[in-house]
Design goal:
Layout: H1 6-9, H2 15-36, H3 49-67, H4 81-105, H5 113-134, H6 136-150, H7 166-175, H8 183-204, H9 207-219, H10 225-241, H11 244-262, H12 266-279, H13 289-298, H14 302-330, H15 344-351, H16 355-367, H17 372-387, H18 397-431, H19 433-444, H20 449-464, H21 469-479, H22 481-486, H23 491-504, H24 513-522, H25 526-536, H26 538-549, H27 559-581, H28 590-604, H29 608-636
Protein backbone atom coordinates (compact mmCIF):
# COMPACT_ATOMS: atom_id res chain seq x y z
CA UNK A 1 0.00 0.00 0.00
CA UNK A 2 1.07 3.54 -0.37
CA UNK A 3 1.91 5.78 2.50
CA UNK A 4 0.47 9.15 3.13
CA UNK A 5 1.81 11.84 0.90
CA UNK A 6 3.08 9.30 -1.57
CA UNK A 7 0.49 10.05 -4.18
CA UNK A 8 1.33 13.76 -4.11
CA UNK A 9 5.00 12.85 -4.54
CA UNK A 10 4.28 10.93 -7.74
CA UNK A 11 4.39 12.49 -11.18
CA UNK A 12 1.27 12.21 -13.27
CA UNK A 13 2.27 12.30 -16.92
CA UNK A 14 0.03 12.68 -19.94
CA UNK A 15 0.26 11.61 -23.55
CA UNK A 16 2.66 8.88 -24.66
CA UNK A 17 4.67 9.08 -21.44
CA UNK A 18 1.49 8.64 -19.42
CA UNK A 19 0.63 5.47 -21.33
CA UNK A 20 4.20 4.23 -20.88
CA UNK A 21 3.97 4.87 -17.13
CA UNK A 22 0.68 2.95 -16.93
CA UNK A 23 2.08 0.06 -18.95
CA UNK A 24 5.08 -0.32 -16.61
CA UNK A 25 2.85 -0.15 -13.52
CA UNK A 26 0.49 -2.82 -14.87
CA UNK A 27 3.46 -5.00 -15.90
CA UNK A 28 4.61 -5.49 -12.29
CA UNK A 29 1.51 -7.42 -11.08
CA UNK A 30 1.05 -9.25 -14.39
CA UNK A 31 4.62 -10.54 -14.43
CA UNK A 32 4.32 -11.33 -10.72
CA UNK A 33 1.29 -13.56 -11.34
CA UNK A 34 3.02 -15.30 -14.26
CA UNK A 35 6.11 -16.01 -12.15
CA UNK A 36 4.42 -17.12 -8.92
CA UNK A 37 2.09 -19.50 -10.77
CA UNK A 38 5.03 -20.61 -12.94
CA UNK A 39 2.89 -20.28 -16.07
CA UNK A 40 5.80 -20.68 -18.57
CA UNK A 41 6.22 -24.24 -17.30
CA UNK A 42 2.86 -25.14 -18.84
CA UNK A 43 4.27 -24.04 -22.20
CA UNK A 44 7.34 -26.22 -21.76
CA UNK A 45 9.58 -23.25 -20.89
CA UNK A 46 11.98 -23.17 -17.95
CA UNK A 47 13.71 -20.19 -16.37
CA UNK A 48 15.76 -19.26 -13.33
CA UNK A 49 13.77 -17.44 -10.67
CA UNK A 50 16.51 -14.76 -10.77
CA UNK A 51 15.37 -13.93 -14.31
CA UNK A 52 12.00 -12.90 -12.90
CA UNK A 53 13.72 -10.96 -10.11
CA UNK A 54 15.78 -9.16 -12.77
CA UNK A 55 12.61 -8.09 -14.63
CA UNK A 56 11.05 -6.98 -11.33
CA UNK A 57 14.22 -5.03 -10.47
CA UNK A 58 14.28 -3.30 -13.86
CA UNK A 59 10.58 -2.35 -13.69
CA UNK A 60 10.80 -1.02 -10.12
CA UNK A 61 13.86 1.10 -10.88
CA UNK A 62 12.40 2.37 -14.16
CA UNK A 63 9.17 3.43 -12.43
CA UNK A 64 10.95 5.20 -9.58
CA UNK A 65 12.67 7.53 -12.06
CA UNK A 66 9.42 8.13 -13.93
CA UNK A 67 7.18 8.65 -10.89
CA UNK A 68 9.38 10.17 -8.18
CA UNK A 69 10.96 13.58 -8.88
CA UNK A 70 14.49 14.40 -7.76
CA UNK A 71 13.20 16.78 -5.09
CA UNK A 72 9.92 17.63 -3.40
CA UNK A 73 9.28 20.92 -5.16
CA UNK A 74 9.86 19.59 -8.68
CA UNK A 75 6.99 19.78 -11.22
CA UNK A 76 4.73 16.72 -11.22
CA UNK A 77 3.68 16.93 -14.87
CA UNK A 78 7.09 16.95 -16.56
CA UNK A 79 9.72 14.24 -17.03
CA UNK A 80 13.27 15.62 -17.26
CA UNK A 81 15.56 14.03 -19.86
CA UNK A 82 17.92 12.65 -17.21
CA UNK A 83 15.08 10.76 -15.47
CA UNK A 84 14.03 9.31 -18.82
CA UNK A 85 17.63 8.17 -19.37
CA UNK A 86 17.81 6.63 -15.87
CA UNK A 87 14.50 4.85 -16.46
CA UNK A 88 15.81 3.45 -19.77
CA UNK A 89 19.08 2.33 -18.15
CA UNK A 90 17.07 0.59 -15.41
CA UNK A 91 15.27 -1.48 -18.02
CA UNK A 92 18.58 -2.25 -19.74
CA UNK A 93 20.37 -3.56 -16.63
CA UNK A 94 17.31 -5.62 -15.70
CA UNK A 95 16.80 -6.97 -19.23
CA UNK A 96 20.47 -7.98 -19.54
CA UNK A 97 20.18 -10.15 -16.44
CA UNK A 98 16.85 -11.60 -17.58
CA UNK A 99 18.08 -12.57 -21.07
CA UNK A 100 21.60 -13.74 -20.26
CA UNK A 101 21.30 -15.16 -16.75
CA UNK A 102 21.70 -18.78 -17.88
CA UNK A 103 25.12 -17.86 -19.28
CA UNK A 104 25.95 -15.64 -16.31
CA UNK A 105 25.38 -18.45 -13.79
CA UNK A 106 28.34 -20.48 -15.09
CA UNK A 107 30.59 -17.39 -15.28
CA UNK A 108 29.85 -15.68 -11.96
CA UNK A 109 33.50 -15.49 -10.93
CA UNK A 110 34.68 -13.80 -14.14
CA UNK A 111 35.28 -10.04 -14.19
CA UNK A 112 33.94 -9.03 -17.61
CA UNK A 113 34.25 -5.29 -18.47
CA UNK A 114 30.69 -4.99 -19.80
CA UNK A 115 29.27 -6.57 -16.64
CA UNK A 116 31.39 -4.31 -14.43
CA UNK A 117 29.94 -1.29 -16.25
CA UNK A 118 26.36 -2.60 -16.01
CA UNK A 119 26.90 -3.49 -12.34
CA UNK A 120 28.16 0.03 -11.64
CA UNK A 121 25.12 1.53 -13.37
CA UNK A 122 22.77 -0.78 -11.41
CA UNK A 123 24.34 0.20 -8.07
CA UNK A 124 24.19 3.93 -8.87
CA UNK A 125 20.54 3.59 -9.91
CA UNK A 126 19.67 1.78 -6.66
CA UNK A 127 21.45 4.46 -4.62
CA UNK A 128 19.63 7.31 -6.34
CA UNK A 129 16.28 5.50 -6.10
CA UNK A 130 16.92 4.98 -2.38
CA UNK A 131 17.59 8.69 -1.93
CA UNK A 132 14.36 9.65 -3.68
CA UNK A 133 12.08 7.11 -2.02
CA UNK A 134 13.68 6.54 1.41
CA UNK A 135 15.70 9.69 1.98
CA UNK A 136 19.26 10.54 2.96
CA UNK A 137 19.38 8.64 6.29
CA UNK A 138 18.91 5.26 4.63
CA UNK A 139 21.19 6.18 1.72
CA UNK A 140 23.92 7.18 4.19
CA UNK A 141 23.76 3.74 5.78
CA UNK A 142 24.15 2.03 2.40
CA UNK A 143 27.13 4.28 1.64
CA UNK A 144 28.76 3.26 4.92
CA UNK A 145 28.53 -0.41 3.95
CA UNK A 146 29.98 0.27 0.49
CA UNK A 147 32.81 2.30 2.03
CA UNK A 148 33.53 -0.53 4.45
CA UNK A 149 33.69 -3.09 1.64
CA UNK A 150 36.18 -1.00 -0.34
CA UNK A 151 38.32 0.18 2.57
CA UNK A 152 38.23 -2.52 5.26
CA UNK A 153 42.01 -2.21 5.52
CA UNK A 154 41.49 1.21 7.17
CA UNK A 155 39.41 -0.23 10.05
CA UNK A 156 40.91 -1.31 13.37
CA UNK A 157 40.68 -4.54 15.36
CA UNK A 158 38.01 -7.06 14.44
CA UNK A 159 36.71 -4.90 11.58
CA UNK A 160 40.03 -5.01 9.68
CA UNK A 161 40.14 -6.77 6.30
CA UNK A 162 41.88 -6.71 2.93
CA UNK A 163 39.17 -4.76 1.13
CA UNK A 164 37.39 -5.54 -2.14
CA UNK A 165 38.12 -3.97 -5.53
CA UNK A 166 35.29 -2.03 -7.14
CA UNK A 167 35.28 -4.38 -10.15
CA UNK A 168 34.69 -7.39 -7.94
CA UNK A 169 32.16 -5.58 -5.73
CA UNK A 170 30.08 -4.27 -8.65
CA UNK A 171 30.07 -7.66 -10.38
CA UNK A 172 29.16 -9.55 -7.21
CA UNK A 173 26.34 -7.21 -6.15
CA UNK A 174 24.86 -7.11 -9.67
CA UNK A 175 25.10 -10.78 -10.64
CA UNK A 176 25.32 -12.95 -7.55
CA UNK A 177 22.16 -14.42 -5.96
CA UNK A 178 23.39 -12.98 -2.64
CA UNK A 179 23.34 -9.42 -4.02
CA UNK A 180 20.59 -7.36 -5.64
CA UNK A 181 18.88 -10.53 -6.88
CA UNK A 182 18.99 -12.09 -3.42
CA UNK A 183 16.61 -12.99 -0.65
CA UNK A 184 15.25 -9.47 -0.06
CA UNK A 185 14.04 -8.93 -3.61
CA UNK A 186 12.78 -12.53 -3.67
CA UNK A 187 10.38 -11.79 -0.82
CA UNK A 188 9.32 -8.44 -2.31
CA UNK A 189 8.67 -9.87 -5.77
CA UNK A 190 6.69 -12.88 -4.55
CA UNK A 191 5.09 -12.83 -1.11
CA UNK A 192 4.87 -9.08 -0.53
CA UNK A 193 3.58 -8.51 -4.05
CA UNK A 194 0.86 -11.15 -3.59
CA UNK A 195 -0.43 -9.51 -0.41
CA UNK A 196 -0.19 -5.96 -1.72
CA UNK A 197 -2.24 -7.15 -4.70
CA UNK A 198 -4.73 -8.81 -2.33
CA UNK A 199 -5.05 -5.69 -0.19
CA UNK A 200 -5.56 -3.39 -3.17
CA UNK A 201 -8.17 -5.69 -4.70
CA UNK A 202 -10.02 -6.09 -1.41
CA UNK A 203 -10.17 -2.43 -0.47
CA UNK A 204 -10.82 -1.09 -3.96
CA UNK A 205 -13.86 -3.32 -4.30
CA UNK A 206 -15.56 -2.27 -1.07
CA UNK A 207 -13.81 -4.46 1.50
CA UNK A 208 -12.41 -1.49 3.41
CA UNK A 209 -15.86 0.02 3.83
CA UNK A 210 -17.22 -3.34 4.97
CA UNK A 211 -14.59 -3.73 7.71
CA UNK A 212 -14.97 -0.13 8.90
CA UNK A 213 -18.77 -0.45 9.04
CA UNK A 214 -18.45 -3.78 10.88
CA UNK A 215 -16.19 -2.20 13.49
CA UNK A 216 -18.60 0.72 13.84
CA UNK A 217 -21.60 -1.58 14.27
CA UNK A 218 -19.79 -3.74 16.86
CA UNK A 219 -18.14 -1.04 18.98
CA UNK A 220 -19.75 2.28 18.23
CA UNK A 221 -22.50 2.09 20.87
CA UNK A 222 -20.19 1.43 23.84
CA UNK A 223 -18.63 4.18 25.95
CA UNK A 224 -15.79 5.74 24.01
CA UNK A 225 -17.17 3.90 20.99
CA UNK A 226 -15.30 5.80 18.24
CA UNK A 227 -11.94 5.05 19.88
CA UNK A 228 -12.82 1.36 20.09
CA UNK A 229 -13.88 1.49 16.45
CA UNK A 230 -10.45 2.98 15.66
CA UNK A 231 -8.70 0.16 17.51
CA UNK A 232 -10.70 -2.58 15.79
CA UNK A 233 -10.80 -1.04 12.31
CA UNK A 234 -7.11 -0.15 12.36
CA UNK A 235 -6.10 -3.63 13.43
CA UNK A 236 -8.21 -5.12 10.63
CA UNK A 237 -6.96 -2.68 8.01
CA UNK A 238 -3.38 -2.63 9.26
CA UNK A 239 -3.02 -6.38 9.16
CA UNK A 240 -3.54 -6.15 5.40
CA UNK A 241 -1.95 -2.80 4.53
CA UNK A 242 1.45 -3.34 6.15
CA UNK A 243 1.86 0.44 6.36
CA UNK A 244 1.22 2.30 9.61
CA UNK A 245 1.01 5.71 7.93
CA UNK A 246 -1.37 4.52 5.19
CA UNK A 247 -3.47 2.94 7.92
CA UNK A 248 -3.60 6.19 9.92
CA UNK A 249 -4.71 8.21 6.91
CA UNK A 250 -7.26 5.66 5.69
CA UNK A 251 -9.06 4.85 8.95
CA UNK A 252 -8.05 7.97 10.89
CA UNK A 253 -9.84 10.30 8.50
CA UNK A 254 -13.07 8.70 9.77
CA UNK A 255 -12.27 7.73 13.37
CA UNK A 256 -10.29 10.77 14.59
CA UNK A 257 -13.09 13.32 13.92
CA UNK A 258 -15.57 10.90 15.56
CA UNK A 259 -13.36 10.54 18.65
CA UNK A 260 -13.00 14.31 18.98
CA UNK A 261 -16.74 14.78 18.51
CA UNK A 262 -17.43 12.25 21.27
CA UNK A 263 -15.21 14.17 23.71
CA UNK A 264 -11.72 12.66 23.46
CA UNK A 265 -8.95 15.28 23.54
CA UNK A 266 -7.34 15.72 20.10
CA UNK A 267 -3.96 14.38 21.26
CA UNK A 268 -5.61 11.24 22.69
CA UNK A 269 -7.61 10.67 19.50
CA UNK A 270 -4.44 10.97 17.43
CA UNK A 271 -2.52 8.66 19.76
CA UNK A 272 -5.21 5.97 19.62
CA UNK A 273 -5.18 5.97 15.83
CA UNK A 274 -1.37 5.99 15.58
CA UNK A 275 -0.99 3.15 18.09
CA UNK A 276 -3.75 1.00 16.62
CA UNK A 277 -2.46 1.55 13.08
CA UNK A 278 1.15 0.71 13.96
CA UNK A 279 -0.01 -2.47 15.66
CA UNK A 280 -1.51 -3.67 12.39
CA UNK A 281 1.99 -4.62 11.25
CA UNK A 282 2.41 -7.07 14.13
CA UNK A 283 -1.12 -8.45 13.90
CA UNK A 284 -1.64 -11.87 12.26
CA UNK A 285 -2.85 -13.34 9.99
CA UNK A 286 -1.23 -10.87 7.57
CA UNK A 287 1.64 -8.85 9.00
CA UNK A 288 3.96 -6.39 7.29
CA UNK A 289 6.55 -7.18 4.62
CA UNK A 290 9.22 -7.66 7.29
CA UNK A 291 7.35 -10.69 8.67
CA UNK A 292 7.51 -12.42 5.29
CA UNK A 293 11.20 -11.58 5.07
CA UNK A 294 11.61 -13.09 8.53
CA UNK A 295 10.09 -16.40 7.47
CA UNK A 296 12.32 -16.53 4.41
CA UNK A 297 15.50 -15.62 6.32
CA UNK A 298 14.78 -18.23 8.98
CA UNK A 299 13.72 -20.86 6.47
CA UNK A 300 10.44 -21.55 8.27
CA UNK A 301 6.80 -21.38 7.09
CA UNK A 302 5.19 -17.96 7.43
CA UNK A 303 2.45 -19.69 9.43
CA UNK A 304 4.92 -20.31 12.25
CA UNK A 305 5.85 -16.62 12.35
CA UNK A 306 2.18 -15.58 12.39
CA UNK A 307 1.23 -18.03 15.15
CA UNK A 308 4.22 -17.02 17.26
CA UNK A 309 3.28 -13.34 16.93
CA UNK A 310 -0.38 -13.88 17.88
CA UNK A 311 -0.22 -13.59 21.69
CA UNK A 312 2.11 -10.54 21.77
CA UNK A 313 -0.25 -8.84 19.29
CA UNK A 314 -3.27 -9.64 21.48
CA UNK A 315 -1.45 -8.21 24.51
CA UNK A 316 -0.61 -5.07 22.55
CA UNK A 317 -4.22 -4.40 21.56
CA UNK A 318 -5.47 -5.42 24.98
CA UNK A 319 -3.39 -2.64 26.58
CA UNK A 320 -4.70 -0.14 24.03
CA UNK A 321 -8.32 -1.22 24.48
CA UNK A 322 -8.24 -1.08 28.30
CA UNK A 323 -6.72 2.41 28.34
CA UNK A 324 -9.20 3.65 25.75
CA UNK A 325 -12.09 2.30 27.80
CA UNK A 326 -10.80 3.79 31.07
CA UNK A 327 -10.19 7.17 29.43
CA UNK A 328 -13.82 7.16 28.31
CA UNK A 329 -14.98 6.19 31.82
CA UNK A 330 -12.79 8.87 33.42
CA UNK A 331 -14.26 11.60 31.22
CA UNK A 332 -17.81 10.24 31.14
CA UNK A 333 -17.75 9.71 27.39
CA UNK A 334 -20.71 7.93 25.87
CA UNK A 335 -21.03 5.85 22.75
CA UNK A 336 -22.51 7.05 19.50
CA UNK A 337 -26.31 7.22 19.25
CA UNK A 338 -27.84 4.12 17.69
CA UNK A 339 -29.34 6.11 14.83
CA UNK A 340 -25.80 7.19 13.81
CA UNK A 341 -24.55 3.60 13.61
CA UNK A 342 -24.91 1.03 10.85
CA UNK A 343 -26.83 -2.12 11.78
CA UNK A 344 -24.56 -5.15 12.05
CA UNK A 345 -27.01 -7.45 10.27
CA UNK A 346 -27.41 -4.93 7.47
CA UNK A 347 -23.62 -4.59 7.14
CA UNK A 348 -23.18 -8.37 7.05
CA UNK A 349 -26.04 -8.81 4.63
CA UNK A 350 -24.47 -6.25 2.31
CA UNK A 351 -20.85 -7.35 2.55
CA UNK A 352 -20.60 -10.86 3.99
CA UNK A 353 -19.10 -12.04 0.71
CA UNK A 354 -15.88 -10.20 1.65
CA UNK A 355 -15.38 -12.75 4.41
CA UNK A 356 -14.84 -15.39 1.71
CA UNK A 357 -11.44 -14.06 0.52
CA UNK A 358 -10.24 -13.80 4.13
CA UNK A 359 -11.46 -17.32 4.85
CA UNK A 360 -9.71 -18.63 1.75
CA UNK A 361 -6.51 -16.86 2.77
CA UNK A 362 -6.57 -18.30 6.29
CA UNK A 363 -7.52 -21.75 5.03
CA UNK A 364 -4.76 -21.91 2.39
CA UNK A 365 -2.12 -20.42 4.70
CA UNK A 366 -2.84 -22.09 8.02
CA UNK A 367 -4.60 -25.36 7.13
CA UNK A 368 -3.44 -26.30 3.63
CA UNK A 369 0.02 -24.82 4.36
CA UNK A 370 0.27 -23.51 0.78
CA UNK A 371 3.17 -21.15 0.04
CA UNK A 372 2.32 -17.62 1.15
CA UNK A 373 2.65 -16.08 -2.32
CA UNK A 374 0.27 -18.61 -3.93
CA UNK A 375 -2.16 -18.30 -0.99
CA UNK A 376 -2.19 -14.53 -1.51
CA UNK A 377 -2.97 -14.93 -5.21
CA UNK A 378 -5.75 -17.44 -4.55
CA UNK A 379 -7.32 -15.00 -2.07
CA UNK A 380 -6.97 -12.18 -4.63
CA UNK A 381 -8.67 -14.27 -7.29
CA UNK A 382 -11.53 -14.92 -4.88
CA UNK A 383 -11.97 -11.14 -4.40
CA UNK A 384 -12.56 -10.70 -8.12
CA UNK A 385 -14.88 -13.70 -8.11
CA UNK A 386 -16.86 -12.33 -5.15
CA UNK A 387 -17.38 -9.05 -6.98
CA UNK A 388 -19.14 -10.93 -9.77
CA UNK A 389 -21.94 -11.60 -7.24
CA UNK A 390 -22.09 -8.03 -5.88
CA UNK A 391 -24.04 -5.81 -8.23
CA UNK A 392 -22.70 -2.59 -6.69
CA UNK A 393 -19.05 -3.73 -6.83
CA UNK A 394 -18.85 -5.50 -10.16
CA UNK A 395 -15.47 -4.97 -11.73
CA UNK A 396 -15.01 -3.68 -15.24
CA UNK A 397 -11.77 -3.50 -17.18
CA UNK A 398 -11.16 0.08 -16.04
CA UNK A 399 -11.29 -0.88 -12.36
CA UNK A 400 -9.10 -3.94 -12.92
CA UNK A 401 -6.47 -1.75 -14.57
CA UNK A 402 -6.73 0.73 -11.71
CA UNK A 403 -6.12 -2.07 -9.17
CA UNK A 404 -3.15 -3.32 -11.19
CA UNK A 405 -1.67 0.18 -11.39
CA UNK A 406 -2.11 0.82 -7.68
CA UNK A 407 -0.51 -2.54 -6.93
CA UNK A 408 2.48 -1.44 -9.01
CA UNK A 409 2.64 1.83 -7.09
CA UNK A 410 2.32 -0.01 -3.80
CA UNK A 411 5.38 -2.10 -4.67
CA UNK A 412 7.70 0.85 -5.30
CA UNK A 413 8.79 1.60 -1.73
CA UNK A 414 9.25 -1.99 -0.61
CA UNK A 415 10.90 -2.79 -3.95
CA UNK A 416 13.50 -0.05 -3.51
CA UNK A 417 14.07 -1.05 0.13
CA UNK A 418 14.72 -4.64 -0.89
CA UNK A 419 16.99 -3.72 -3.79
CA UNK A 420 19.08 -1.54 -1.47
CA UNK A 421 18.99 -4.25 1.18
CA UNK A 422 20.40 -6.59 -1.46
CA UNK A 423 23.46 -4.32 -1.65
CA UNK A 424 23.91 -4.46 2.13
CA UNK A 425 23.34 -8.21 2.40
CA UNK A 426 25.75 -8.80 -0.48
CA UNK A 427 28.46 -6.69 1.18
CA UNK A 428 27.96 -8.45 4.51
CA UNK A 429 28.25 -11.81 2.75
CA UNK A 430 31.31 -10.81 0.71
CA UNK A 431 33.24 -9.25 3.61
CA UNK A 432 32.08 -11.47 6.49
CA UNK A 433 30.93 -8.33 8.32
CA UNK A 434 27.95 -10.07 9.94
CA UNK A 435 30.14 -12.43 11.96
CA UNK A 436 32.72 -9.72 12.71
CA UNK A 437 30.11 -7.21 13.92
CA UNK A 438 28.34 -9.83 16.03
CA UNK A 439 31.60 -10.66 17.79
CA UNK A 440 32.24 -6.97 18.42
CA UNK A 441 28.73 -6.47 19.85
CA UNK A 442 29.05 -9.48 22.14
CA UNK A 443 32.33 -8.08 23.45
CA UNK A 444 30.80 -4.61 23.88
CA UNK A 445 27.86 -6.05 25.83
CA UNK A 446 30.22 -8.05 28.03
CA UNK A 447 28.28 -11.16 26.98
CA UNK A 448 25.22 -9.74 28.76
CA UNK A 449 22.06 -10.74 26.90
CA UNK A 450 20.02 -8.00 28.60
CA UNK A 451 22.47 -5.26 27.58
CA UNK A 452 22.54 -6.59 24.04
CA UNK A 453 18.72 -6.62 23.94
CA UNK A 454 18.67 -3.00 25.10
CA UNK A 455 21.20 -2.08 22.40
CA UNK A 456 19.13 -3.95 19.84
CA UNK A 457 15.89 -2.23 20.89
CA UNK A 458 17.52 1.22 20.79
CA UNK A 459 19.16 0.47 17.45
CA UNK A 460 15.92 -0.74 15.84
CA UNK A 461 14.02 2.34 17.03
CA UNK A 462 16.75 4.76 15.95
CA UNK A 463 17.26 3.14 12.54
CA UNK A 464 13.50 2.94 12.04
CA UNK A 465 13.01 6.68 12.55
CA UNK A 466 12.15 8.13 9.18
CA UNK A 467 12.55 4.75 7.44
CA UNK A 468 10.24 1.85 6.75
CA UNK A 469 9.87 -1.05 9.18
CA UNK A 470 11.23 -3.36 6.50
CA UNK A 471 14.41 -1.31 6.06
CA UNK A 472 15.03 -1.05 9.81
CA UNK A 473 14.34 -4.75 10.30
CA UNK A 474 16.72 -5.76 7.50
CA UNK A 475 19.54 -3.67 8.90
CA UNK A 476 19.04 -4.95 12.44
CA UNK A 477 18.87 -8.63 11.59
CA UNK A 478 22.17 -8.25 9.76
CA UNK A 479 23.86 -6.39 12.60
CA UNK A 480 22.12 -7.35 15.87
CA UNK A 481 20.21 -10.63 15.44
CA UNK A 482 23.32 -12.82 14.93
CA UNK A 483 24.79 -11.51 18.18
CA UNK A 484 21.55 -12.23 20.07
CA UNK A 485 21.49 -15.74 18.66
CA UNK A 486 25.12 -16.21 19.68
CA UNK A 487 24.19 -15.36 23.28
CA UNK A 488 21.44 -17.97 23.34
CA UNK A 489 18.29 -16.19 22.11
CA UNK A 490 16.36 -18.48 19.74
CA UNK A 491 16.53 -17.27 16.09
CA UNK A 492 12.77 -16.64 15.72
CA UNK A 493 12.66 -14.84 19.06
CA UNK A 494 15.62 -12.64 18.11
CA UNK A 495 14.04 -11.70 14.77
CA UNK A 496 10.65 -10.94 16.34
CA UNK A 497 12.37 -8.83 19.01
CA UNK A 498 14.04 -6.67 16.38
CA UNK A 499 10.83 -6.54 14.32
CA UNK A 500 8.74 -5.25 17.25
CA UNK A 501 11.09 -2.38 17.99
CA UNK A 502 11.34 -1.45 14.32
CA UNK A 503 7.54 -1.08 14.40
CA UNK A 504 7.76 1.01 17.58
CA UNK A 505 9.93 3.55 15.78
CA UNK A 506 6.65 4.80 14.27
CA UNK A 507 5.48 5.83 17.76
CA UNK A 508 8.75 6.85 19.40
CA UNK A 509 9.90 10.51 19.21
CA UNK A 510 11.54 12.48 17.80
CA UNK A 511 10.79 11.04 14.32
CA UNK A 512 7.57 9.02 14.59
CA UNK A 513 5.80 8.99 11.25
CA UNK A 514 2.52 7.40 12.35
CA UNK A 515 2.20 9.98 15.14
CA UNK A 516 3.01 12.82 12.70
CA UNK A 517 0.17 11.71 10.42
CA UNK A 518 -2.32 11.18 13.26
CA UNK A 519 -1.47 14.44 15.06
CA UNK A 520 -1.88 16.30 11.78
CA UNK A 521 -5.34 14.80 11.23
CA UNK A 522 -6.31 15.50 14.84
CA UNK A 523 -4.91 19.03 14.93
CA UNK A 524 -2.96 18.07 18.06
CA UNK A 525 0.49 18.73 19.49
CA UNK A 526 2.87 16.10 18.07
CA UNK A 527 4.96 15.49 21.22
CA UNK A 528 1.88 15.23 23.44
CA UNK A 529 0.36 12.78 20.97
CA UNK A 530 3.59 10.77 20.84
CA UNK A 531 3.84 10.57 24.63
CA UNK A 532 0.27 9.26 24.83
CA UNK A 533 0.93 6.80 22.00
CA UNK A 534 3.88 5.35 23.93
CA UNK A 535 1.61 4.85 26.95
CA UNK A 536 -1.03 3.14 24.82
CA UNK A 537 1.53 0.92 23.11
CA UNK A 538 3.41 0.07 26.31
CA UNK A 539 3.02 -3.68 25.76
CA UNK A 540 5.24 -3.58 22.67
CA UNK A 541 8.08 -2.03 24.68
CA UNK A 542 7.96 -4.72 27.39
CA UNK A 543 6.71 -8.01 25.92
CA UNK A 544 9.64 -8.49 23.46
CA UNK A 545 12.09 -8.57 26.39
CA UNK A 546 9.96 -11.28 27.98
CA UNK A 547 9.73 -13.59 24.98
CA UNK A 548 13.44 -13.11 24.22
CA UNK A 549 14.17 -14.96 27.47
CA UNK A 550 11.05 -17.11 27.80
CA UNK A 551 9.42 -18.26 24.54
CA UNK A 552 6.12 -19.40 26.10
CA UNK A 553 4.47 -16.17 24.92
CA UNK A 554 5.42 -17.18 21.38
CA UNK A 555 3.53 -20.46 21.84
CA UNK A 556 6.77 -22.39 22.18
CA UNK A 557 7.28 -25.10 24.77
CA UNK A 558 5.04 -27.17 27.06
CA UNK A 559 1.31 -26.53 26.74
CA UNK A 560 0.87 -25.88 30.46
CA UNK A 561 3.73 -23.37 30.46
CA UNK A 562 2.11 -21.62 27.49
CA UNK A 563 -1.32 -21.44 29.16
CA UNK A 564 0.25 -20.19 32.40
CA UNK A 565 2.33 -17.56 30.56
CA UNK A 566 -0.62 -16.30 28.49
CA UNK A 567 -3.05 -16.00 31.45
CA UNK A 568 -0.57 -14.24 33.74
CA UNK A 569 0.56 -11.97 30.88
CA UNK A 570 -3.04 -10.88 30.27
CA UNK A 571 -3.49 -10.15 33.97
CA UNK A 572 -0.18 -8.30 33.98
CA UNK A 573 -1.05 -6.19 30.96
CA UNK A 574 -4.43 -5.31 32.52
CA UNK A 575 -2.81 -4.18 35.77
CA UNK A 576 -0.16 -2.25 33.86
CA UNK A 577 -2.73 -0.50 31.65
CA UNK A 578 -4.86 0.49 34.66
CA UNK A 579 -1.80 1.84 36.48
CA UNK A 580 -0.66 3.84 33.46
CA UNK A 581 -4.12 5.28 32.82
CA UNK A 582 -4.52 6.14 36.53
CA UNK A 583 -8.21 5.29 36.67
CA UNK A 584 -10.35 2.28 37.51
CA UNK A 585 -13.72 3.04 39.05
CA UNK A 586 -12.40 6.44 40.04
CA UNK A 587 -9.14 8.34 39.83
CA UNK A 588 -6.15 6.56 41.41
CA UNK A 589 -3.42 8.28 43.42
CA UNK A 590 0.24 7.84 42.50
CA UNK A 591 0.85 5.19 45.20
CA UNK A 592 -1.88 2.89 43.83
CA UNK A 593 -0.78 3.53 40.27
CA UNK A 594 2.82 2.62 41.11
CA UNK A 595 1.76 -0.55 42.90
CA UNK A 596 -0.47 -1.60 39.99
CA UNK A 597 2.37 -1.06 37.53
CA UNK A 598 4.73 -3.09 39.74
CA UNK A 599 2.10 -5.80 40.11
CA UNK A 600 1.59 -5.88 36.35
CA UNK A 601 5.32 -6.20 35.71
CA UNK A 602 5.50 -9.01 38.28
CA UNK A 603 2.79 -10.96 36.45
CA UNK A 604 4.44 -10.34 33.08
CA UNK A 605 7.80 -11.72 34.20
CA UNK A 606 7.59 -15.50 33.66
CA UNK A 607 7.81 -17.71 36.74
CA UNK A 608 5.45 -18.69 39.55
CA UNK A 609 7.26 -16.63 42.16
CA UNK A 610 7.10 -13.37 40.23
CA UNK A 611 3.48 -14.08 39.28
CA UNK A 612 2.44 -14.59 42.90
CA UNK A 613 4.25 -11.43 43.95
CA UNK A 614 2.56 -9.49 41.15
CA UNK A 615 -0.88 -10.82 42.04
CA UNK A 616 -0.26 -10.13 45.74
CA UNK A 617 0.53 -6.49 44.92
CA UNK A 618 -2.09 -5.78 42.26
CA UNK A 619 -5.22 -7.78 43.09
CA UNK A 620 -5.80 -6.30 46.59
CA UNK A 621 -5.84 -2.81 45.08
CA UNK A 622 -8.43 -3.87 42.50
CA UNK A 623 -10.62 -5.43 45.21
CA UNK A 624 -10.19 -2.40 47.47
CA UNK A 625 -11.22 -0.01 44.67
CA UNK A 626 -14.20 -2.19 43.73
CA UNK A 627 -15.40 -2.37 47.33
CA UNK A 628 -14.81 1.34 47.92
CA UNK A 629 -16.78 2.23 44.82
CA UNK A 630 -19.72 0.07 45.92
CA UNK A 631 -19.75 1.75 49.33
CA UNK A 632 -19.78 5.18 47.74
CA UNK A 633 -22.59 4.20 45.37
CA UNK A 634 -24.64 2.73 48.23
CA UNK A 635 -24.29 5.93 50.18
CA UNK A 636 -25.37 7.95 47.20
CA UNK A 637 -28.32 5.61 46.62
CA UNK A 638 -27.23 4.48 43.17
CA UNK A 639 -26.94 0.87 44.42
CA UNK A 640 -29.71 -0.98 46.33
Amino acid sequence: MTDTGEESRFRRLSGILGYWEDMLLVSIPLIGVVSILNLPLYLGLTFFIQQYFAIFFGLIMALVFILVPTRKGAPKDQLPWYDLVCSFLSLVVGAYLAFYYKEIVVELGLLVPSRIVLGTIAIVLVLEASRRVLGWPFLSIVFIFIFYALFTFLFPGRLYGKGVTWSRLATFLYLDPQGILGIAIEVAATIVFAFVFFGQALFRTGGGEFFTDSAMALMGRFRGGPAKVAVLASSLFGTMSGSAVANVVTTGSVTIPLMKKTGYPPYFAGAVEATASSGGQIMPPIMGAAAFLMATFLGIPYVKVALSAAIPAVLYYMAVFIQVDLEAAKNGLKGLPSEALPRLLAVLRKGWLFLIPLSILIYTLFIQMIEADRAGLYATASVFLVCCFRKQDRIGLKKVIKILKETGEGMLEVGVVCCAAGLIIGIVSLTGLGFTFSQALVSLAGESTLLLLILGAAGAIILGMGMTVTAAYLLMIILIAPALIQLGVAPLNAHLFVFYFAVMSFLTPPICLAVYAAASLAGADMMKTAYQAIKLGIAAYIVPFLFAYHPSLLLQGDIFDIIHAVITAMIGISLLAIGIEGFLFQKLNWVKRTLLILGGLGCLIPGWRSDLIGLAIGVPILLWEWKRTRVIKKRSGSLP
